């Protein structure tokens, strides 16, 4: 078998033959719906957006015609987003709910970003993942739709492949996100960023948690943390490309990384790493051989 053929087979397996893609996509739908709805409901934006709308609201020129929302307008936008998110999470009219949820959350998210640009930067993955699930059979498993639908013969194979591709897209998105974060550090500060540990040490000492400030007494911990971050950010993408999946240790490293950053530096990416069990950890379980999806030959056997 030639190298080109093996490479094509590897790419095809990574994109279209992931382990139990329909079940994992359903888990991802539920996790993404819960996280996104919680983000809209729990993040303290409602009072902030109302109190500062005349002072901080600054839309881009393309959307300058959109006025700052009053209390009623903001409640309607948030309420519609939450309702669409609940329907999406439950898997009721999943495709329509996914489209409505992705559009409403994008509008809400952009409106919040008109007050605080970093908000848009830190949660853009939620928009891309919601858009991706609009094109995938996200309601094929563990949904209200799945209880009342019948699968046409031969259609499950195409659904599996599409679900596998959707999962692969989201996994690669995270892998590229980490690589971009590491590359940005190198371009701005050089590889010395991962050796000295000064940036997280200073930030923790200035604005970190009480626990993190206690840790600043041991600067070597932050040097080790930076090396840990370098391994994660520059190892995630190669591991994904070479293995066709993210190995469980790398996924656990990512979760622990974000938990540690939140506990020490008050930088919380809960809306990112809470998606990882559905996106990565389930994938690392031993693969099960799917039942054949092609229709068996119904012709009776004939004697030789």
UniProtKB/TrEMBL annotation:
Keywords: Membrane, Transmembrane, Transmembrane helix
Main location: membrane
Domain HTTM-like: 17-280
Membrane topology: Multi-pass membrane protein
Transmembrane recorded as keyword: yes
InterPro entries the UniProt entry points to: HTTM-like (IPR011020), HTTM_dom (IPR053934)
Annotated TM spans: 21-42, 72-90, 97-113, 162-181, 221-243, 255-276
Pfam families xrefs: HTTM (PF05090)
Keyword Nucleus: no
Location in or out of the cell: Endomembrane system
This protein's name: HTTM domain-containing protein
Organism, scientific name: Hyalangium rubrum
């Amino acid at each position: 078998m030639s190298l080109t053929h093996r490479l094509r087979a590897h790419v095809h397996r990574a994109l279209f033959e992931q382990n139990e893609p329909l079940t994992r996509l359903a888990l991802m739908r539920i996790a993404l719906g819960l996280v996104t709805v919680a983000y809209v409901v729990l993040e303290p934006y409602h009072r902030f957006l109302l109190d500062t709308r005349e002072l901080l609201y600054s839309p881009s020129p393309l959307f300058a015609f959109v006025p700052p929302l009053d209390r009623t307008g903001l409640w309607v936008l948030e309420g519609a987003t939450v309702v669409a998110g609940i329907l999406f999470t439950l898997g009721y009219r999943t495709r329509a709910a996914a489209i409505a949820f992705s559009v409403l959350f994008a509008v809400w998210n952009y409106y919040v970003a008109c007050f605080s640009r970093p908000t848009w930067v830190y949660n853009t993955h939620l928009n891309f993942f919601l858009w991706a699930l609009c094109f995938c059979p996200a309601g094929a498993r563990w949904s209200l739709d799945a209880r009342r639908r019948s699968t046409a013969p031969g259609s499950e194979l195409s659904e599996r492949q599409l679900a596998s591709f959707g999962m692969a897209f989201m996994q690669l998105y995270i892998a590229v996100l980490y690589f971009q974060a590491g590359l940005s550090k190198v371009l701005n500060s050089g590889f010395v960023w991962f050796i000295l540990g000064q940036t997280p040490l200073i930030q923790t000492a200035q604005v970190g948690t009480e626990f993190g400030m206690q840790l600043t007494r041991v600067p070597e911990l932050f040097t080790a943390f930076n090396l840990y971050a370098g391994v994660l950010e520059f190892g995630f993408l190669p591991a994904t490309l070479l293995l066709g999946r993210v190995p469980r240790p790398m996924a656990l490293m990512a979760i622990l990384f974000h938990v540690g950053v939140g506990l020490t530096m008050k930088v919380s990416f809960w809306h990112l790493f809470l998606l990882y069990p559905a996106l990565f950890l389930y994938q690392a379980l031993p693969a099960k051989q799917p039942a054949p999806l092609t229709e068996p030959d119904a012709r009776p056997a004939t004697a030789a």
